[in-house]
Structure formats: C-alpha cells, structure tokens
Amino acid sequence: MSKTCYIGLGSNLENPVEQLQTALQALAALPGVRLRQTSSFYRNPPMGPQDQPDYINAVVELELDMPAEALLEQLQRIENEHGRERNGERWGPRTLDLDILLYGEEFIDSTRLTVPHPGLAKRAFVLLPLYEIAPELVVPGLGSVAKLLEACDTYELEAIDLDPGNDH
Asked: How does residue 49 score in pLDDT terms, banded at 50, 70 and 90?
C-alpha cells in the first residue's frame, strides 16, 4: 500500500542549489518512489552556529511503497553520496540534509527515526515550503500546516529564483 511522505531538504555547502537539485534526481530515481511535488527553494540563515553559510531548503512530496526505516536508509545513502559528514556537530554546516517530515499519518518513535519530525512545528524553513505544496495538510498531533505557519516568523526566508533569465 503506497504512502504519501514529505521530505525536507537542506544544504549550505558546495553549491547548495546544485546539491538539492541532484538530491531531487536521486529521490526520483529510487525504486518504488514517485516524486509528486517539489516546493520552491528558500534561502535562510543557519539555525545553529551563525559562523556558517546560509542554507537552501525545500520540501518534496513523495508517493512510495517502502517502509519508513528503509526510506531512512535510502536518504542516508543519498546524503553520503553527496559528501555528508556526520561529525556529531548539531546544526552545523552540511552538503546535504534529508529529513523525513511526515510518513503518511503515522507516528514513529524508534531509536533511529521520529515522525512527525520533532522540529517541524517550529521551523519556518520547513513549514513555508510544506505549505506551498500541501496547504490543506494536517500534521498528525500538531494541527494544520497553515496554523503552524501562522505561529512562525518567516521574515528571514527568501525564495530563490532558479531561472536566472527570469526578469519578473
């Protein structure tokens, strides 16, 4: 039975826009996965230490036939292929970060995975792109994405124009 899943993407090293674009290709190429929607890309200041470059973030909607733990393994493989280093630094700079935000309407709390993502309700850089592609979405246990977004400050988010020839 297929599930609808939302993945948060982020990067702030080694051409972040390109990192996200190639990650989208890798996600779309996963067996049993259909990439349904992709949000705009957004630039925002780092959440953690401020002595690092701004992040580029986006959210994608996937339809898939894969258990959540197997999806997590695939996401970590893609991160590793993009040069992700896991050095224990929380909220530090990274080439690619892929987070399972929602996996159907399931609650998952294992040693490896927590869904809905624990930071989802407080992160404008997740909520704004999520709202862009799924404005009617309700986050299990937390309420509508629209209401969650109203409670967040989005003034530091900047949509990125991926078409440099676009003058409007």
From this structure: confident
Number of structural domains the chain divides into: 1
Q: Side chain identity at 128, as an amino acid letter? A: L
- Which is catalytic among the residues 43, 54, 77, 84? 84
Q: Model pTM?
A: 0.92
Question: Is residue 94 flagged as an active site residue?
Answer: yes
CA distance 27 to 21: 10
Q: What is the CATH number of the domain that holds 30?
A: 3.30.70.560
Q: Active site includes 84?
A: yes
Domain boundaries, position 75: 3-159
Residue 167 lies in a domain: no
- pLDDT tens digits, residue range 142-156? 999 999 999 999 889
Does a structural domain hold residue 165? no
